[in-house]
From TrEMBL:
GO terms for cellular component: cytoplasm. This is Uncharacterized protein. Keywords: NAD, NADP, Oxidoreductase, Stress response. It catalyses: glycolate + NADP(+) = glyoxylate + NADPH + H(+); 4-hydroxybutanoate + NADP(+) = succinate semialdehyde + NADPH + H(+). InterPro entries: 3-OH-isobutyrate_DH-rel_CS, 6-PGluconate_DH-like_C_sf, 6PGD_dom2, 6PGDH_NADP-bd, HIBADH-like_NADP-bd, HIBADH-related, HIBADH-related_NP60_sf, NAD(P)-bd_dom_sf. It comes from Chlamydomonas schloesseri.
Length: 294
């Protein structure tokens, strides 16, 4: 992307995608930024800020050199590529497709093989960091797949993130992201149980937060989510349904390798319970609600 300005596209304008696409737009590095979202009305804000809009993934890809995607889950990622007027209908020789959604290796591999069979190039690029890091362009990007495309994406990755890692062949970044989010979900599950036990045993949750924050377990997630848990108010930054999806996919990876994952399996049960309570669209800190069931 160093020479002539490229036309870039973005599929999926949810919590993360809208912020990431906005940063591409604001950077001024690209000749154009063309966006698509399944619910097309959600494109309007970015269009009012200077983005172009296309009515299908195929139309985005055919008008862009590189298209990024940030979609909910494996079903969404596959639908955008293989569906009617999907990515495959717009791919041609040399075009790049970079899927930044959190999906499993099988999904990513299927997409990568189809894109390359059509003459395109493929990188998977899932991210760590939530709504605020996405807004601030401070995501951590895990890349794998076509190394040349990964290098060509560096200017875009620097706009969206603070650091990117090239991890190897397609699948490596998907696996890394699932491992990272398995640890995160397990930590959040344990943290919420601690908050619940503190409260039930007559301790101040604020005191627990302060004590945890001063010791070896201090971390930004407890500091950020602790107050939300105390107020039992969970505006979504990372929707709980996506955290449960990531635990489910990580457990499936563990199954396929005979890797015991008892802590993650228990955390997954808590997230499933919270989802059953109707908390799927709340922030993943709402797993606390599963600890409040009688
Ligand atoms: N939020 C976070 O903190 C982080 C999220 N992630 C991952 O990033 C991805 C996006 O997350 P986030 O932005 O929070 O999610 P949102 O739920 O806010 O957005 C999901 C996006 O996927 C689209 N979508 C859902 N189903 C389909 C489908 N069948 N076909 C096409 N498009 C579909 C939605 O379109 P529509 O508007 O029409 O519903 C929307 O654009 C997920 O994989 C998530 O795990 C990774 C890091 C952090
Ligand atoms: O996949 C979501 C990750 C959220 C985070 O890293 O804070």
């Amino acid at each position: 992307m160093a020479d002539a300005k490229l036309n870039v596209g973005f599929l999926g304008l949810g919590i993360m995608g809208e912020a990431m696409a906005r940063n591409l737009l604001k950077s001024g590095l690209f000749a154009s930024v063309t966006v698509w979202n399944r619910t097309l009305a959600k494109c309007q804000t970015l269009v009012s800020e200077g983005a172009k809009m296309a009515e299908t993934p195929a139309a985005v890809v055919s008008s862009c050199d590189i298209t990024f995607a940030m979609l909910a889950d494996p079903d969404a990622a596959l639908a955008a590529v293989f569906g009617d007027n999907g990515v495959l209908k717009g791919i041609s020789a040399g075009k790049g497709y970079v899927d930044m959604s959190t999906v499993d290796e099988a999904t990513s591999t299927k997409i990568g093989e189809a894109v390359t069979a059509a003459g395109g190039r493929f990188v998977e690029g899932p991210v760590s960091g939530s709504k605020k890091p996405a807004i601030d362009g401070q995501l951590i990007i895990m890349g794998a797949g076509d190394k040349e495309l990964y290098e060509q994406c560096q200017p875009a990755f620097r706009v969206m993130g603070k650091k990117s890692f090239y991890l190897g062949a397609t699948g490596a970044a998907a696996r890394m992201k699932l491992v990272v989010n398995m640890v995160m979900g397990s930590m959040m599950g344990a943290f919420c149980e601690g908050m619940a036990l503190a409260e039930k045993s007559g301790l101040e949750q604020t005191a627990l937060l302060e004590i945890l924050g001063l010791g070896a377990m201090a971390n930004p997630m407890f500091a950020l989510k602790g107050p939300a848990i105390m107020s039992r108010s969970y505006p979504p930054a990372f929707p709980l349904k996506h955290q449960q999806k990531d635990l489910r996919l990580a457990l499936a990876l563990g199954d396929s390798l005979n890797q015991p994952l008892p802590v993650a399996a228990a955390a997954n049960e808590s997230f499933k319970a919270a989802k059953a309570l109707g908390r799927g669209d709340d922030d993943f800190a709402a797993v606390y609600e599963a600890t409040q069931q009688k």
